[in-house]
Design a protein that fits this description.
By secondary structure, the protein is an alpha+beta fold. It has two domains: 92 residues; 253 residues, Alpha-Beta Plaits (2-Layer Sandwich), CATH 3.30.70. Helix content is 49%, strand content 19%. The longest helix is centred in the first third of the chain and has 34 residues.
């Protein structure tokens, strides 16, 4: 059970610090802390106020003439309290785990289907970028096919962290449509895969310097003189696993080195997480869904104007609007259904 008194006290303390002129150099830090607890703190204060009203009204029940009135009022107050508690629990569930609050690295790769698969991969990438633009999620390119999303959406009913928001998007996304290059009007099936990883901090995954091989080269394409004529692009090879990460986006080599290390840590975290889950149970590992790049999770069917998620058996319509980034309902439904399924499987295993 949450400590509502502590939460309200912390909110009041941060509010005082925010209003103190001497803290002008810490306004951003205090503002971020205040924003992170504001919604829950307001509900906590409401619950505490209702508790006080219930306690004060209970005294009236000692008077025979006021007993019925007191009982009716207490019933209304308890109903209001239960509603506030439900809202509070909803916010806590939306926040998810510690990993869910982390920035998300999303990697888009074309699958089967040739040029159409590449176009489809780009379509998906644009869809998530459009959603981010409309929902206050910031993003940056790590390379041409990989983006880093960070922040939380403005919709409080969605998971309040980039990784929690996008983690169930990992897998193969299939499209069925008539390609622009198809002269006969035949429907083609193509695929693209998405891998979603949390951005992992340095202390969470151990990377030994002697296990790393760094390679530096000149980046091609746009970017200006420094990018094209100086070896700013970076390729990092993790010798024990063979994992290779590349960053060419930044103008300076040091920044590209940091990006490569961030991506490597996230991929090593994925391996460690899969190993941990496999030790629990193979079925449960499949349910959690980390790194399942070969699994077909969703089909975008243009002739039927339909998107279907095969894991939960739910479909959404108005496909063109969805591809323009209108995916909040889809993300919300998948998150709730997949999280519930995961919890039920875990509960079943515990009972066994």
């Amino acid at each position: 059970m949450a400590d509502f008194n502590s939460l309200a006290t912390e909110y009041d303390r941060l509010s005082r610090e925010m209003a103190d002129p001497s803290n002008i150099h810490r306004l951003q830090e205090i503002g971020e802390q205040l924003s992170s607890i504001q919604d829950k703190a307001v509900l906590a204060k409401d619950v505490l106020a209702l508790d006080t009203q219930i306690s004060e009204t209970s005294v009236l029940s000692l008077d025979p003439e006021m007993a019925q009135y007191a009982a009716d009022e207490i019933s209304k107050l308890k109903e209001a309290k239960n509603q506030k508690l439900a809202e509070f629990n909803g916010l806590e569930q939306a926040e998810g785990s510690v990993d869910d609050k982390k920035p998300a690295i999303m990697e888009f790769r074309p699958g089967a289907g040739g040029d159409e698969a590449k176009i489809w991969s780009d379509n998906l990438k644009r869809m998530y970028m459009r959603f981010a633009d409309e929902n206050n999620i910031k993003y940056e390119f790590l390379d041409e096919n990989t983006l880093l999303f960070k922040g939380k959406p403005k919709d409080p009913t969605l998971p309040q962290g980039a990784y929690g928001l996008f983690k169930w998007e990992s897998g193969v996304h299939r499209v069925q449509r008539v390609p622009e290059t198809e002269s006969q009007g035949r429907i083609h099936t193509s695929t693209a895969s998405i891998a979603v990883l949390p951005k992992v901090e340095a202390q969470e995954v151990v990377v030994r310097p002697e296990d790393l091989e760094w390679q530096f080269f000149r980046a091609g394409g746009h970017g200006g003189q420094n990018v094209n004529k100086v070896s700013t692009a970076v390729r990092l090879i993790h010798k024990p696993t063979g994992i290779t990460t590349v960053s060419t986006q930044e103008r300076y080599q040091e920044r590209n080195r940091e990006i490569c290390l961030d991506f490597l840590r996230s991929k090593l975290w994925e391996i460690q997480e899969e190993e941990r889950l496999s030790k629990l149970d193979a079925t449960r590992s499949a349910a959690v869904g980390h790194g399942q790049r070969s699994e077909k999770i969703r089909t975008f069917n243009f002739p039927q104007n339909r998107v279907t998620d095969h894991r939960i058996g739910v479909s959404w319509f108005n496909l063109p609007v969805i591809l323009e980034g209108n995916i909040a309902e889809m993300l919300r439904t998948v998150s709730v259904e997949m999280t519930t399924d995961k919890e039920l499987r875990a509960l079943s295993e515990d009972e066994e």
